[in-house]
Amino acid sequence: MKRRDFIKTTALGATGAVLGAQILQAEESKGSVAKYKIEAQYSIDFDSAEHTSLFIPMPSVVASNVHLQGNHASYKSMLNFGVPYLQVDFLKSAQKKQVHLSYEIASYQLNERLFETSDFVAMGRYERDDASVANIANQLKGTTPKESVRNFYAFIKHEMPKRQKALEGKENLPKRESLPWFATISQESMFVSLCHACGIKSAEVQGLKLGQNSVVKNAPRVEVYLQDSLLAFDFQNNHKEVFIPLNRHKDMQLDSALLATFGDAFALVDGRDLGNYESKLFEKRVSYTIV
Predict the structure, then answer these.
(1) Where are the alpha helices (H) located in the chain, listed in sequence order?
(2) Distance between CA 12 and CA 68 in Å, rounded?
(3) Residue in 106, 108, 86 with CA at minimum distance from that of residue 42
(4) How is residue 278 annotated by DSSP?
(5) At what angle do helices 145-166 and 131-140 cross, to 10 degrees?
(6) 20, 80, 84, 186: which could form a disulfide with 58 (CB 3.0–4.6 Å)?
(7) pLDDT at residue 10, rounded to an integer
């Protein structure tokens, strides 16, 4: 994987902008190529704010024909710690704040990544490296990395739910450390923990899933990088849906806010999380078409 430079552009005006290619374009592949056009519309109906910022996560793959329109005052293309995003700023106005973003991604580019390989080696905050995880990894380890990760997936997919169900009604144990390993970790984080215990590069990636009827959903999946291939594991049983990766970071710092994950657009109103206000003040619609 090679890191691709993020192209920073300047605003062309408050009413509209054309960003061009988000990441340096890869050479076009031969043959027929499916392209997915993502369209996202956001509106914030908050007229008393002095300053409003909207943060929109962008794909960590090559995107073309990127367009941004709206009544914003300015925007910035950002790349922090391998996380690409747009920061769109609005000034005080009685007018509803609106943004329309669109971009296209070719199918053959879906396996490209902005991440450095080293990002998949470091332990994340939500993963574990204690003895219990190492013991499970050793028991499930196969003769090859590919066999190992398939064993991990089967174990987490089928065994973890049984153990978690047995815990129902026992969440209020006197001490948190009394809880078994499977009580306080997600399936994705456990999968990555097992991979790292065996020296296999892996990460939980936030992204967009393209479902039926042009529906776009925010969802995570686990990606494993082997020497000769990329393997993707989905614990939500939607393997056939196209997945557009956004980023793999958690605890993402955006201005005055610290996000547990950054898979969806996020807004600050005078430095305060818009999520603290009525949900009807922030509307979004994300859809896709095949072009």
Answers:
(1) 131-140, 145-166, 187-197
(2) 10
(3) 86
(4) -
(5) 120
(6) 84
(7) 29
Span(s) in the chain for CATH 3.10.620.30: 119-247
How much of the chain exceeds pLDDT 90, in percent? 38
What's at 264, amino acid-wise? D
Alpha carbons 206 and 68: distance in angstroms, whole number: 22
Q: What's the CATH code, domain 16-115+252-290?
A: 2.60.40
Q: Are β-strands 242-247 and 250-254 bridged in parallel, bridged antiparallel, or unpaired?
A: unpaired
Token reading at 68: 């941004």
CA-to-CA distance for 1 and 116, rounded, in angstroms? 7
- Confidence tier at 23 by pLDDT (50, 70, 90): very low
Secondary structure E strands in the chain: 16-20, 35-44, 51-57, 64-70, 74-80, 83-91, 97-106, 201-210, 216-225, 230-233, 242-247, 250-254, 257-261, 266-269, 272-273, 282-290
Write the burial class of residue 200 (CB in 10 Å: 0-12 exposed, 13-18 middle, 19+ buried): buried
The CATH class of the 119-247 domain is alpha beta
Provide the 10 A C-beta neighbour count for residue 43.
Answer: 18
Looking only at the bridges linking them, the beta strands covering 216-225 and 230-233 are antiparallel
Residues of the chain with CATH 2.60.40: 16-115+252-290
